[in-house]
């Protein structure tokens, strides 16, 4: 007998089919029970006679044979007249850690993360990951249509790329190595190696001591790097075009999940591009909000996003022209604005989801900048040598996958957009 997924059952009206999934809910009504079967595509009502009902418990994995019938009272207008149920995965528990069949889970997020297999069985908890999968799909499809190559670079590396001390160390035989904070140097090297336009979807590691709603110690980075650019405007154009293609893709592929989560995706209008200094001035003059030197803090990002929403009706804003003192060594200075760089952040609904910019592509200039940053150029020979052999003007950006997922879906905590989060306190499950 053919295995059918719940979302396709309507095609088999009056026919006998085989379904596979988990027991979501059981209602006993005298001699008959109504069992909700849940598979990865949805939930369906089974009508089960008493002799088949015995021994069944919530969340057991079952295989069901039965006939598809119409019933206007059942959710989706269909139900299964069950002829056979086989338990293929036992319920070896005393009580479930929490109920997952009441829409939302009534348990603290930490408890849900501890019991991840069970919490993810809730369609609402799992829905963000379907959306996340489709963000990745849209990213890949969009970039491949623009002559990009997908690359995979090492995550065990010999030196940091983003400055600061936020690196995890690893014992690498008799040496000390690090987990990559980003594929930054390697994506640039691959531009120079002739791939010219590259992207990578990979893990990034940050040993940051922040345990907040928006920080993870391991996250997925959607990285892009392009050669032969005019300036950072080309990069913002590309990211904007990607976002414009993303929302229709999500509407097309994630209708069920977006509806489940109550999300309506607006059309993305032109994204304003505003120099950081101007944003800081607006915050100070309009909201008496002081900003840290060369950046906005989390509160400032929130207030400025609300200002942009009111003024431009946009959920997104590019902040441009960050000072060189606040950007990594590879960032291209803006020769027209001393002390500033050709870099940007993208703020979405009050949260930074992207950093990007043009890079220094001249060997001598990059070497000198390393010295100015108190770095020893010899330690970076493997990277620096790339710049001796005709490195074109280039730049790129990186989008935090969990952050963009979280903001698209209006989730409160980045962990709700992370299957198995790694944070200051958590390395299991
Ligand atoms: P940056 O360090 O700003 O830039 O990181 C880029 C994007 O990655 C995400 N991100 C994080 N997400 C969750 N938890 C974290 N701890 C975390 N840290 C960063 C954010 C952020 O905007 N090499 C540059 C990018 C480039 O210029 O191409 C870089 O890594 O969404």
From TrEMBL:
Keyword Lipoprotein: no
Subcellular compartments: Cytoplasm
Protein residues bound to ATP: 206-208, 214-216, 352, 400-403
GO molecular function: aspartate-tRNA ligase activity; ATP binding; catalytic activity, acting on a protein; RNA binding; transferase activity
GO cellular component entries: aminoacyl-tRNA synthetase multienzyme complex; cytosol
Occurrences of domain Aminoacyl-transfer RNA synthetases class-II family profile (ranges): 129-429
Catalytic activity: tRNA(Asp) + L-aspartate + ATP = L-aspartyl-tRNA(Asp) + AMP + diphosphate
E.C. number: 6.1.1.12
Keywords: Aminoacyl-tRNA synthetase, ATP-binding, Cytoplasm, Ligase, Nucleotide-binding, Protein biosynthesis
EC class name: ligase
Binding locations of L-aspartate: 162, 206, 355, 359
GO BP field: aspartyl-tRNA aminoacylation
One Pfam family linked to the record: tRNA_anti-codon
UniProt-annotated stretches for the region Aspartate: 184-187
Stated role: Catalyzes the attachment of L-aspartate to tRNA(Asp) in a two-step reaction: L-aspartate is first activated by ATP to form Asp-AMP and then transferred to the acceptor end of tRNA(Asp).
Family: Belongs to the class-II aminoacyl-tRNA synthetase family. Type 2 subfamily.
Subunit comment: Homodimer.
Protein name: Aspartate--tRNA ligase
Species for this entry: Alkaliphilus serpentinus
């Amino acid at each position: 007998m053919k295995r059918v997924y719940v979302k396709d059952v309507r095609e088999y009206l009056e026919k006998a089919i085989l379904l596979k999934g988990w027991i979501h809910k059981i209602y006993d009504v005298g001699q008959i029970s109504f069992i909700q079967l849940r598979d990865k595509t949805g939930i369906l009502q089974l009508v089960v006679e008493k002799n088949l009902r015995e021994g069944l418990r919530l969340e057991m994995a079952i295989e069901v044979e039965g006939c598809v019938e119409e019933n206007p009272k059942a959710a989706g207008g269909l139900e299964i007249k069950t002829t056979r149920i086989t338990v293929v995965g036992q319920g070896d528990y005393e009580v479930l850690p929490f109920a997952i069949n009441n829409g939302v889970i009534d348990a603290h997020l930490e408890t849900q993360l501890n019991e991840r297999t069970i919490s993810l069985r809730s369609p609402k908890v799992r829905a963000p990951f379907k959306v996340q999968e489709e963000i990745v799909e849209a990213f890949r499809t969009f970039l491949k249509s623009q002559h990009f190559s997908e690359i995979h670079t090492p995550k065990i590396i010999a030196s940091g790329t983003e400055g600061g001390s936020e690196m995890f160390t690893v014992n690498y035989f008799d040496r000390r190595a690090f987990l990559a904070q980003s594929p930054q140097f390697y994506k640039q090297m691959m531009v120079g190696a002739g791939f010219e336009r590259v992207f990578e979807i990979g893990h990034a590691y940050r040993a940051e001591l922040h345990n907040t709603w928006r920080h993870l110690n391991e996250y997925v980075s959607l990285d892009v790097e392009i050669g032969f650019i005019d300036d950072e405007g080309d990069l913002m154009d590309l990211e904007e075009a990607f976002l414009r293609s993303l929302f229709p893709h999500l509407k097309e592929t994630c209708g069920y999940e977006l509806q489940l989560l109550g999300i309506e995706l607006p059309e993305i209008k032109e994204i304003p591009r505003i120099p950081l200094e101007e944003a800081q001035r607006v915050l100070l003059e309009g909201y008496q909000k002081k900003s840290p030197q060369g950046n906005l803090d989390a509160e400032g990002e929130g207030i400025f996003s609300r200002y942009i929403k009111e003024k431009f009706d946009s959920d997104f804003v590019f902040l441009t022209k960050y000072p060189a003192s606040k950007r990594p060594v590879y960032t291209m200075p803006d020769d027209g604005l001393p002390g500033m760089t050709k870099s940007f952040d993208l703020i979405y609904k009050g949260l930074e989801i992207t950093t990007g910019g043009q890079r220094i592509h001249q060997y001598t200039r990059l070497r000198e900048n390393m010295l100015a940053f108190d770095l020893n150029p010899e330690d970076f020979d493997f990277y620096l040598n790339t710049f001796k052999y005709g490195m074109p003007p280039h730049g790129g950006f990186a989008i935090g996958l969990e952050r963009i997922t979280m903001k698209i879906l209006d989730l409160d905590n980045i962990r709700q957009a992370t299957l198995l989060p790694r944070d200051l306190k958590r390395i299991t499950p």
